[in-house]
């Protein structure tokens, strides 16, 4: 799975790609590593909708205020 795959499925560039990749990795593990790349790619639109519903991503791909705060908090935790 590459960034180009995500972009081709409508994922906007930026930190949302990281969130989608994390969710794809979780979905892959839940399926005992037995699903194909194509099956995972089919999940991307649903994952983008979930990010938008949670207020972490806008339709135009830009982060919302809530999303920006979440990314800042995550970055601080990674540094510590």
In short:
With about 80 residues, the chain is mainly α.
Q: Can you describe this structure?
A:
- The protein has 5 helices and no strands.
- With about 80 residues, the protein is mostly helical.
- The protein has one domain (about 5-80).
- The longest helix is centred in the N-terminal third of the chain and has 16 residues, at about 15-30.
Q: Layout of helices and strands, plus pairs?
A:
Elements: H1 3-8, H2 15-30, H3 37-41, H4 44-53, H5 65-79
Helix pairs in contact: 2-4
Tell me the β content: under 5%
Count, helices: 5
Radius of gyration: 13 Å
Q: Specify the biggest β-sheet.
A: none
Shape: globular
Helix content: 55-70%
* Tally of discrete structural domains: 1
Key features?
80 residues; 65% helix; 5 helices; mainly alpha
